């Protein structure tokens, strides 16, 4: 890996009152042990990317790594909506809810919960890919591959890696998995064909197909499909109906079988979200191909509910329901 730089970010005073205390997102905030985290920049060829490492113990090699790809695709103003660009916006959600503290809490909580299972030294690498319109497809796919290569350089074992993504992060997760299984003609994507497939993929409300008539015009979901399609078109341009940018359009059964993680997928989505029918169609297709898929539907849930519920839910159990299910799957399938 060329030109790798790491900068430690001190956070002890950022959470006013300590671990999971007053500075976090909710009056019912849980107590997280704040794992050290640092910002890393990596470059290979013409591709560069940044990411946030959260490590339980930075001095030891992790025994599990969650490679997290967030869902915030665009920085442009579309239909009078502009996400706030934050200094450390490497964390979750295909939407503009809360602040950096909210997003960081999701990752810190995940690392903390992983450390309470059989894992001795969990770590998370959260990718900070380029946003639309500054960059468009395939830049983000290239960056996702480069970020995965960076993770493998640390752990040297794909069986220790779970890739996870919410919303547009699910799109990039499926796109980069698809690239891992393609022929040598695609080696320009940072040598994607030379990389082993991760052990497990966790998809949180994945945006499987960029533009699809199956997207549900939900009355309760904050994700409106017309706006969603405009984001998809801004990202993919003329490729919006091409499987290279929109993985839900890929009908190559053999390719999906080849690139599916050894322990398959864990898919989490909300019953009332716009993407629900498309997500369910993806689950059915994978199961027909004999790919291992476990799924969890939140009754009455909306888009990216495991992320949003940390802020919105009124009880500790409800706040952590989705995240604990995700951690349980990682423990079961990578432990």
TrEMBL record:
The keyword Hydrolase applies. GO terms for molecular function: hydrolase activity. This is Alpha/beta hydrolase fold-3 domain-containing protein. It comes from Ustilaginoidea virens. Belongs to the 'GDXG' lipolytic enzyme family. Keywords: Hydrolase. Residues 92-305 form the Alpha/beta hydrolase fold-3 domain. The active site is at 167.
């Amino acid at each position: 890996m060329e030109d790798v730089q790491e900068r430690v970010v001190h956070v002890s005073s950022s959470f006013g009152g300590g671990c999971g205390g007053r500075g976090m997102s909710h009056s019912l905030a849980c107590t997280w042990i704040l794992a050290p985290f640092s910002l890393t920049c990596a470059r290979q060829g013409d591709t560069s990317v940044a990411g946030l490492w959260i490590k339980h113990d930075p001095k030891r090699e992790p025994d599990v790594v969650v490679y997290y790809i967030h869902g915030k695709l665009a920085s442009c103003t579309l239909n009078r909506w502009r996400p706030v660009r934050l200094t450390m916006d490497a964390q979750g959600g295909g939407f503009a809810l809360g602040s950096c503290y909210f997003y960081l809490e999701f990752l810190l909580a995940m690392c903390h919960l992983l450390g309470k299972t059989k894992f001795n030294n969990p770590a998370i690498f959260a990718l900070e890919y380029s946003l639309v319109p500054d960059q468009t497809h395939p830049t983000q796919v290239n960056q996702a591959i480069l970020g995965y290569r960076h993770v493998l350089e640390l752990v040297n074992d794909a069986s220790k890696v779970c890739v996870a993504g919410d919303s547009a992060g699910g799109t990039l997760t499926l796109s980069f998995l698809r690239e891992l299984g393609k022929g040598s003609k695609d080696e320009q994507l940072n040598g994607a064909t030379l990389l082993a497939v991760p052990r497990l993929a966790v998809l949180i409300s994945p945006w499987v197909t960029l533009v699809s008539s199956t997207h549900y015009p939900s009355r309760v979901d904050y994700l409106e499909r017309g706006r969603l399609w405009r984001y998809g078109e801004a990202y993919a341009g003329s490729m919006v109906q091409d499987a290279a940018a929109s993985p839900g359009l890929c009908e190559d059964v053999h390719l999906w079988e080849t690139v599916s993680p050894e322990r398959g997928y864990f898919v989490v989505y909300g019953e009332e979200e716009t993407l629900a029918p498309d997500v369910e169609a993806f689950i059915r297709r994978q199961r027909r191909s004999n790919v291992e898929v476990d799924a969890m539907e939140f009754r009455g849930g909306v888009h990216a509910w495991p992320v949003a519920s940390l802020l919105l839910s009124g009880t500790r159990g409800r706040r952590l329901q989705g995240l604990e299910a995700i951690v349980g799957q990682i423990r079961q399938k990578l432990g």
